Amino acid sequence: MATHSELIQTERNAIKYSVWGNLVMGLLGLGFAAASHSYAVLLDSVYSLVSFTASLFSLKVTEMIMRPANKDYPFGYAIYEPMFNLGKGLVIFTVCLLALYSSIEALFHGGREIAAGIAFFYAVSTAVVCLVIARILYHYAKRCESPIVSVDAKNWILDGILSAVIGGALLVVYLLEESRFKAWLPYADPVAVILLVMLFLPIPYRIIRDNWAQVLGRNTDPEIRGLSEEAVRECFHGKPVQETEIRALRAGRFIYLQVFIVVARDEAWPRKVRDEDEYRETLRRRLGEKFRYLIIDVVFTTDEKWINQVPEVES
């Protein structure tokens, strides 16, 4: 199994791959958008440049979240990962809404004249490149279990689909340029943008929804709790345990797990702190096979009040 430093290096390599890819695609898109006068191509290039800027920030975030806890950040820096992904989702969502507004406005003002042949060549080439890069990034994301790289891969798929659909629409426009439908062709570009925005708005919406829940401290992953309950049952099978309480929280790639073990007051188990540490280690190893970035805390107590603590306010 790869070490954490090796995984982080793999993640950073993947992000650098995405950084340069987005920059190249964004600059090429701007050039082709200027030549073809297509807002659909412009949307594609702006999307790439937004992803380029976000990828630069993600290099800093991946370094920051692995720092140890300190007096200023007693629980570490893990919360920055969902915060970053949340911001990225919001930016993408905003770009989509601006493109939607611009295209609806164009529909009411005669549409847009475009050079369909030039735009078609760009769109098809971009679609192929984007989908290839997405496949590579998904491979990296699986290897290093990185939510940041995973979001990047989704963005490249989004960009690839965007370019492919634009290419299809532009091909139709090119083929119909000398037909009796020529008067309607200026509306093809804004209609294509509107359809594209409606098609992939759910993707940034899901990114925003999931990472906002993590920022709020709400667990949205039932798999974590299910596997944790199973591991606790097996680990403490046959022991005089009255009750268990499991609390799980995801913050980016990190899983925070708090397990309360309630033991009867007259029981002699566990006898030593060393015994408690052995069970903590057993549980950590078991769950660590599934969750690489696991932080676990096991609390042994004979009083259930420690499970649901409330402030004692004097009346």
Keywords:
single chain; 315 residues; mainly alpha; Alpha-lytic protease prodomain-like; Alpha-Beta Plaits; 3 strands; elongated; transport; Cation_efflux_TMD_sf; Cation_efflux; membrane; transmembrane
Which radius of gyration do the C-alpha atoms yield? 26 Å
Number of helices: 9
| Cα-to-Cα separation, first versus last residue | 56 Å
Q: Domains counted in the coordinates: how many?
A: 2
Residue fraction in strands: 5-15%
Find the count of extended strands (DSSP E, 2+ residues).
Answer: 3
Range of helix content: 55-70%
CATH architecture of the largest domain: Up-down Bundle
Name of the CATH homologous superfamily of the largest domain? Cation efflux protein transmembrane domain
- Mean of all residue-level pLDDT scores: 83
Structural class comes to mainly alpha
CATH topology descriptor of the largest domain? Alpha-lytic protease prodomain-like
Order of helices and strands: HHHHHHHHEEHE
Please list the strands of the largest sheet in the order they lie side by side: 1-2-3
Outline the biggest β-sheet: 3 strands, mixed
Shape type? elongated
The stretches of 5 or more residues where confidence is low (pLDDT under 50) are none
CATH class of the largest domain: Mainly Alpha
Which helices and strands appear, and what pairs or packs with what?
Elements: H1 4-36, H2 39-64, H3 80-107, H4 116-144, H5 147-175, H6 188-200, H7 202-216, H8 222-235, E1 241-251, E2 254-263, H9 273-288, E3 294-301
Parallel strand pairs: 2-3
Antiparallel strand pairs: 1-2
Helix pairs in contact: 1-2, 1-4, 2-3, 2-5, 3-6, 3-7, 4-5, 5-6, 8-9
